[in-house]
Amino acid sequence: MAEHPALIEGRVAVVTGAASGIGAATCEVLAAAGASVVCGDIDAKGLEATVERVEAVDGRALAKVTDVTERADVERLVQHAVDELGRIDAMCNVAGAMFPGLIEDLDDDTIDRGIDLNLKGVLYGTQYAIRAMKAAGRGSIVNVSSAAIDEPYAGIGVYAFTKAAVAMLTMTAALEVGEHGIRVNAIAPGATLTPFTTWRLHRPDGTLDQEAYDTFVEQSREQSPLRALGEPVDQALLIHYLVSDAARFATGNIFRVNGGQTMAW
Q: What phi and psi, each to the nearest 5 degrees, are found at residue 194?
């Protein structure tokens, strides 16, 4: 092989959920590895911060405010990448959110919002990426599932069952589009220190409950054989691998970087 297979110099990646957490880290990592990144998120200010992070590593980023629960928005995001940069080599469907509540208490609004964001948003990104990648005969799609698909947690049922659906969506899509040279994989992060993970560690007034935070960190570390807690970059580096040629034989897989948190003991 003439060049290192992990190099993605000159490639174009689209990342949703790009304003913070794993999405923002993914934009930075892919840009540092040579890709041009199209960043989509509903948070305009967060997108600006991500673009600054990319530029700080001498990367190129375009930002487009995108609501992934709206099919037309996702179509425009992918088309923006094609119009401005000529093609799309990688689609990273990172956007998602927690929708807490016991199963028996879930109302239709919570259920619908969870499905729209965590499942439909990923589905739309997968659909439009496939359509854009087919002509080139290659591409990589990475969806974000969760460690919650392996081990149930009370009170996050909507999140868990939508993420389980993302896993099956990923495997089915991989089966359908392999003949076009398109690979589809998912990552299933464990506890990772992001605003997404720490939502429950704040008081009603929005301030951080330091005691609850410290307890969360310690419990998460205890669940890992490495006695470690993940950071957004840990997931971003896995995404980098999956969109690169280093993962050319990987498709239809659910990759778990979770410090062994859901491993059977």
A: -140, 165
**pTM of the entire structure?**
0.91
Percent of the residues in the chain that have a pLDDT greater than 70, as a whole number:
94
The token pair at 23 is 């999405």
List the catalytic residues. Answer: 159
Phi-psi region of 93 (alpha: psi -120 to 50; beta: other; left: phi over 0): beta
Please, which residues bridge with residue 182 across strands? 139
Tokens of 74: 């996702």
Half-sphere exposure of 141 (CA within 13 A, CB side): 35
pLDDT digits (tens, 9 = 90+) for 82-122: 999 999 999 999 999 999 899 999 999 999 999 999 999 99
| Burial environment of residue 87 by CB neighbours within 10 A (0 to 12, 13 to 18, 19 or more) | middle
Closest alpha carbon to 251 in 180, 148, 163, 151: 180
CB-facing half-sphere around the CA of 207: CA atoms within 13 A? 4
Whether the Cβ atoms of residue 85 and residue 12 lie closer than 8 Å to each other: yes
Q: For residue 164, count other CB atoms closer than 10 A to its CB.
A: 17
Give the residue from 61, 16, 55, 74 showing the smallest Cα distance to 35: 61
Q: Which pLDDT tens digit goes with each residue over 10-38?
A: 999 999 999 999 999 999 999 999 999 99
Q: Give the model's pLDDT for residue 1.
A: 46
